[in-house]
Amino acid sequence: MALIVGLTGGIASGKTTVANIFRDQFSIDIVDADVVAREVVEPGSDGLKAIVARYGQEVLHSDGTLNRPALRTIIFAHPSEKQWIDALLHPMIRRNMQQQLQHVTSEYALLVIPLMVENDLQQLADLVLVVDVEEEIQIQRTMNRDGVSRQQAESILQSQASREQRLAIANDVIKNHSQNQQLLPQITELHKKYLEMCRANL
Between 20 and 30 A from 201 (CA), which of 87, 130, 136, 146? Predict the structure, then answer.
């Protein structure tokens, strides 16, 4: 089994950018919780069938895919339904991620979980890499990227774990504060370190 590096960070911290550099520069396999979360509700999946059985056809688009806004509206009106959705999908997502990790071919793998702290998923990884950024930069990036108001960006930030909570579980930290921050040198150093750990384990 390859070494598993859990990658996390708050909204607009640059997790995807960091993961892509590991993949493109060093051919490291990536298992991404957000991608898996979409896969478990694809048309024909057990996840989507269970959601439709509970809420009816109105949570589907005409092409048979999940209508996320419709589902969000239901959850917003009945917050207890979020617990039902989480109880359904979280075990599926975890299972799928673990299956994908079994098929890793690179010496170590990145397991990208945005809400790692919130869902207490750090035990799925051998060590944790946090992409850290100042909150003001996160707010500006979220507003620019998603076209949301400052208030919305701040409320998303409030709903996530704090920087302190994330850094508390970090084995390694990548600083991504400035717009043109030199990510590659930081990632190159970590890549060397992880390869050494893999070889030491052999």
Answer: 130
